[in-house]
Amino acid sequence: MSLLELADVSRSFGGNRAVDRVSFDMSDRVLAVVGPNGAGKTTLLNLIAGQLRPSRGSIRFRGREISRLAPWRIVGLGMVKTYQIVRPFRSLTVEENLSLFARLRGKAEVGEILQETGLREVRGQLAGALPFGLLKRLELAKGLASRPELLLLDEPIGGLSREEAQGLVGTLEALKSHGVGMVVVEHRLSEILPIVDRVVALDQGRLIFHGTREGFFEDPSVRAAYLGGRDAGG
Ligand SMILES: Nc1ncnc2c1ncn2[C@@H]1O[C@H](COP(=O)(O)OP(=O)(O)O)[C@@H](O)[C@H]1O
Ligand SMILES: [Mg+2]
Asked: In what order do the strands lie in the sheet with 79-82?
């Protein structure tokens, strides 16, 4: 059974089809979603997470239709989305932020998650004083609080230095090896590529490619749409 299965999913805003009849099956562990600005990547993630309703189509998570479920129900089923913009409680420590969140979400062992996300050393620091790179890690840690089976990551390395990005990709790689699935929207494809199994490419809301990362770089329509610039995405 596929972890995630989209069939003919569309979402319009006014007359603008942000996501246009997108279908794909996710059977591998890590799927990258790429495309230029405005391609519909964030809208697609929000549809999958239940934060937006599709205008049409079906979304299944582990075989179960979820497109009409409330976001918190979807979290309960084992799928969690992290945010591009990080907003912790600034006057609480890293550990307090995480404990608070873990209590809301349920299961996980806070110490374990601090370890997994490389936050153990800074657990006593105020979240408001953390550098951006560690804030992104805290966002990931919050996402892990309910021990999800599938993480939806919107630009997890956006705004990070090359070095910070490498570190975070290492963390994601470790999570992957522990069985966590991921749908990753990311402009900086080349930097997350080591953990990616399959790529979905969107252009103006439409799926123009779904396949392996090797196939991605060889596909003529992908080349035409994205690879004119220096990296996939833009
Ligand atoms: N809440 C919204 N209301 C109206 N239009 C939106 C909304 N969210 C996204 N759009 C439009 O949908 C299209 C896709 O946007 P988005 O999913 O944010 O693209 P991406 O994340 O790939 O940059 C864009 O044309 C954007 O202007
Ligand atoms: Mg976006």
From this structure: 79-82, 150-154, 181-185, 30-34, 198-203, 206-212
CATH number 3.40.50.300 given to 1-78+149-234: yes
Ligand 1 atom with least separation from CA of 205: 14
User: What mean pLDDT value characterizes the chain?
Assistant: 91
Domain boundaries of the chain, sorted by first residue? 1-78+149-234, 85-147
Give φ, ψ of 46 to 5 degrees: -65, -35
Q: Whose CA is nearest to atom 3 of ligand 1?
A: 13
pTM equals: 0.91
Q: Which atom of ligand 1 is nearest to the CA of 14?
A: 4
Residue 87 has pLDDT above 90, yes or no: no
Tell me the pLDDT tens digit for each residue of 146-165: 889 999 999 999 889 999 99
Ligand 1 atom closest to the CA of 39, numbered from 1: 22
Q: Which of 11, 13, 153 has most ligand 1 atoms within 8 Å of CB, for mutation?
A: 13
